[in-house]
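2024-03-11 09:14:02 INFO receiving multi-entity request
2024-03-11 09:14:02 INFO entity count = two
2024-03-11 09:14:03 INFO echoing inputs for audit
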Amino acid sequence: EPEVTQTPSHQVTQMGQEVILRCVPISNHLYFYWYRQILGQKVEFLVSFYNNEISEKSEIFDDQFSVERPDGSNFTLKIRSTKLEDSAMYFCASRKGQGIYNEQFFGPGTRLTVL
Amino acid sequence: AQSVTQLGSHVSVSEGALVLLRCNYSSSVPPYLFWYVQYPNQGLQLLLKYTSAATLVKGINGFEAEFKKSETSFHLTKPSAHMSDAAEYFCAVSDPGSSASKIIFGSGTRLSIRP
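2024-03-11 09:21:47 INFO inference complete, emitting structure
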């Protein structure tokens, strides 16, 4: 069964460093998302991406964040200069098409630890 | 703005007992509602969804949820708990005003099953 994959499963970085989190969405999906979950808190929407551009972003998704679909398979989230408060589990999700009947499929997450 | 509130961060039941996980939503328009499950070290898996069709929604693994507009609730139930049901459960709502159909999650309820 097709699934969303994410790498790495765990990333440790120093404050101020750049990190890139990678996701491979399901191959025939068109809508892509990043969510994050700070330990002990809710899963929060970060950004959605469609047709090679951001379709919606949250207040969390500031200039330090960027997303890219560099080729036909990967979908990346880059944090330019990590802060301690960026430590969280980051989930990628993808959806086949429009309409609520197309559910979002989530990856297993990348745990980011900023020291 | 859309939101969901999950009552009880941790619920413990005996194997074979009824499972009841509570969720209340806040919405100014008819919402789309979901329950997701997260098993340890895995991604978020959709259990079931309400999209304004039948108010009683059946999902995977024997779970079901009932949409009650008068109570603004969408509680998750299962008649008989199994050890394999131990996981984190998230109630979520889709924002109809979101062009990207972003999902807004509750804070989660951890379900433990006693032998």
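2024-03-11 09:21:48 INFO post-check: The interface with chain B takes residues 4, 31, 33, 35, 41-45, 48, 50, 55-56, 58, 91, 93, 95, 98, 100-101, 103-104, 106-109 of chain A (CB under 8 Å).
2024-03-11 09:21:48 INFO post-check: The mean pLDDT of chain A is 92.
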